[in-house]
Design goal:
The chain is built from eight helices and six strands; from the N terminus they run βααβαααβαβαββα. With 203 residues, the protein is α/β, with parallel strands linked by helices.
């Protein structure tokens, strides 16, 4: 099946082990296709993996997998390391404020709540100005309030977003949806149609 992702918000649904995460990692060159080919942002991951990873932001399920520095401001400064140090610090403080993390600059990242850690993870990814964002079940570990907050944030971005999720309400708010089963893409289309097919397959 050939798929062209043209919508601004693409939901990816399916059971655990269905191939969603493998698909996500193909999009930023973390995995390579064993057969066939793939183009992402016009790039071939086999030939341009490094360039592709610089343009595709990736948000993991567990923010602890991608928060690399001891404090929020240091983590953002890492994403802004292309800037002069003083400018990176100013930008990091501004971004923390935009994401509701002002006053948390120098606290240990481990002391943040789960929702705050995921906000920091998203902020750090977006600080590098990606052209595409892939989020692999970013709300799974969060309570309802924080899941909604992260969902609203991701769906409100002005860049294309590919969102892997078990939250079918969140998936229904996307522009299109993909359904994976047993490592295969089996449906692509309007979210309500794809979600109905998914529900039927689980009945």
């Amino acid at each position: 099946m050939t798929v062209r992702l043209t919508a601004g918000r693409t939901a990816v649904v399916g059971e655990n082990g269905s191939g969603k995460s493998t698909f996500a990692r193909l999009l930023n060159g973390l995995r390579m296709p064993s057969t066939g080919g793939i183009r992402v942002l016009g790039l071939d991951p086999r030939a341009d993996a490094r360039a592709l990873r610089s343009r595709v932001g990736f948000v993991f399920t567990n923010p602890e997998a991608q928060i690399l520095m001891p404090t929020p401001i240091e983590d953002l400064e890492l994403s802004l390391r292309h800037l002069p140090r003083d400018e990176a610090r100013r930008q990091a403080r501004r971004i923390l404020g935009e994401y509701g993390l002002d006053g948390r600059d120098d606290v240990p990242a481990s002391a943040l709540s789960g929702g705050q850690r995921q906000l920091l993870a998203v902020a750090s990814v977006l600080a590098s100005s990606p052209d595409l964002l892939v989020a692999d079940e970013p709300t799974t570990l969060l309570d309802l309030r924080n899941a909604r907050r992260i969902g609203d944030l991701l769906l409100g971005l002005d860049i294309p977003v590919v969102l892997l999720t078990h939250d079918l309400e969140l998936a229904s708010r996307c522009d299109e949806a993909l359904l994976f089963e047993d490592g295969r893409l089996v449906a692509c289309g309007a979210p309500h149609d794809v979600i109905d097919q998914y529900r039927a397959s689980c009945a």
